[in-house]
Amino acid sequence: MLKLKNVAKYYHSNDVVAMGLRKVNLEFEIGEFVAVTGESGSGKSTLLNVISGLDSYEEGELYINKEETSYYSIEEWEAYRRQYIGFVFQDYNIIDSYSVFENVMIALKIQGYDKETRKQRAEELIDRVGLTSHLHHKASKLSGGQKQRAVIARALAKDCPIIVCDEPTGNLDSESSKNILNLLYEISKDKLVIVVTHNYDEVRDFATRRIRLFDGEVVEDKVFEKVDPSETKTEVAPYFLNLFSLITIAIRNLIRTPRRTIFTTVVFTFIVAVFTLVYGFFVNVTNSTDASGYNFVFNNVTDNRVIVTKYDQTPFTPEELATINDLNRVIYVNNHDVMNDTTVYFYQKDEYYIDVQPAYINPAIVLSKIDLSDGEPPSSKYDIVVQDDLGYQVDDIIYIDYAQKYFMSDVDFDSVSESTLFADKIPFRVSGLVKPTNLYSWVKMFYFHQDFIEDPTTISHSYLGSRDNQIYEVTLDYGDYSLIGLNYSTLVIDDTIPDGSIQLSDGFIGTFEWYADEYFPDVDFESNPTYYLDLDFNLVSSSSFDTFTQPISISGIYTGGGVDEWEEVYAINTNTYNNMISSNIYQITAYASEAYDAELIVENLEDLGFNAIYPQNVSDPFTILAKTILSVVFGGLMLILLIGIYFIVYMVLRNIQQSKIRDFLILRSIGANKSSLNKITIIELLLSTVFSYGIVLLFLYLQKLYRFVPMAGNIMNYFTWGNYLFLTFLLLYLAYLLGSRFNKRIFNQSVITSLKSE
Ligand code: ADP
Ligand code: MG
Known about the structure:
This protein has 758 residues and is an alpha/beta fold. It is built from 21 helices and 28 strands.
């Protein structure tokens, strides 16, 4: 049934051609027990390898059931091996990390037996080789003889007609050898067993035929017992392990080789961490719009802020405001939206200097308890929550000003006493500390109590006091002329001021004098400095949407509140103020309870017909350009990093992967096809990657909660599902590339040389 006709095999290495076999002619039949003998180097192993399809041959023809094999493809050889050949080698080709049972089971699995049959057959076979008591023992724990018996059980598992044994007893004591040979002899009744041995005496009692090789040639072929020719023709259909089986095998491999798995996971965790951090940084930078942390459209891009206006540019009705207030996921509506883009200033004291720093006003309600690293949310009007990277502790006092009155260059801090500097500032008690949301912003986020946020004075300062935001214009008009712009002046709300009137500080007298010649040519301001008190003015407030004009008289010179003589302060009562600013509401901010709700709120508001935007997603052209450049640069860096890491990891893991080669070759020799084994390697690496990714994400999540690396902040701040998906695919692709490369390396080595060199 198996026939070699003029088969020759050469080995080429470094221009030296060694002769493996020369024109060998042999025929074998089922039922034979063939002993192949010869000196070392005579070609015994070569003969077995050619017969078993582990090695190619150069000349002649090998027939199996009269079928030529010289034109077989890799897949056909795989099928040939799986179908016909069972292997037993000298050095126990057994998967050490598997139990006896598993070693046999996997062979059955590769043959495509169903689960029930597999279990039953495995137990039978193991019983047959006398290893039932060692069923679940790890192969590495067995003695040589036991290992060899397990290998025979596995070879039998395949139900193949040919068993080839290359010095199966070479490493065994005589007692074990005898057992093994007995076993092989029993098997040979319905199989062709070919045993290579250098010790013929051992097999003398069993052999039905003896073949002696010398220098690659058959020099003796003696048949003691003739058997009838027969054919065993079985369907040779390639069997592919299904994905589930491949994953099971991959997982078992990972579990059974813990040291290899741990090492691989550590290496992968490292690269996943590097990648996630670089990518996270990239996403962070491109999302925090520019390096200073705000974009050029909105200053305060707090991540749960949604800005709402109406498409027809009319003011909101109370009903509409109520609707927005009641919207799902909206926790707070700030009717005075401009407040959010207003900068306040605080004074930070060092040992040697006092620094003036900008901060944004945010309602404390946007804080969730989890954001607080210490203390409590504000419980009274002058409580404040500040970022924990400023050096303040809970209960410290922090002085806040609406408009920056002193610039560093203007103030000689050596001579200005603290009490002078802070005299007109509002002292706030720090009630809690919060982790910074935007790592790259030099403008800090402050969180105030509702009472402060909704205090008309605060609102007025927000509208009028900020130098940064000329969104709301307030002028004092005389006739057709806008006489005095009040935006740069300090507004005081004082209810002792009569309704419909305004009081200006001394600082304005100079302004009137300045205009005297033009507007009041008849007035001698030198002798009548308060002449303007008799005149009628209009207080005009205008936003981008509308203008509100109210007639106003000047009822006196304002002297309250410790005003300096040069300072421009104007005072009105609450009613006048309300007429001025809050009669109409055109733009509001709705706060989402969580940042990830914000975009949903935008959708809901749009469905209701409002114009809603999420400032985090708004970019100006400059920002878009900056982002594009950043993306290209970072994309390039990522690519370089990817390639670099790929090679480093390849080098680091090469040896550890190499240690798998033996197991793979064994699997291959028992008929697993190349593509299945490729997939197993790749699945193992993908699993390691997923596991490592999990570790890294867990770490980052804990970091988000507890900030154990204080400066690192929350790198995943801006991650969307898209980002996670992209990163996942990138990492899995990296693992895939690595797996493919390892596979190539493994399969470049011929099955037998690798097995033998172990
Ligand atoms: P045996 O098993 O009888 O000891 P082999 O079949 O292993 O002999 O070797 C037969 C001949 O082929 C020897 O001369 C040996 O040097 C040569 N040979 C075997 N394998 C290789 C190989 N992978 N590369 C080069 N020469 C080889
Ligand atoms: Mg040999």
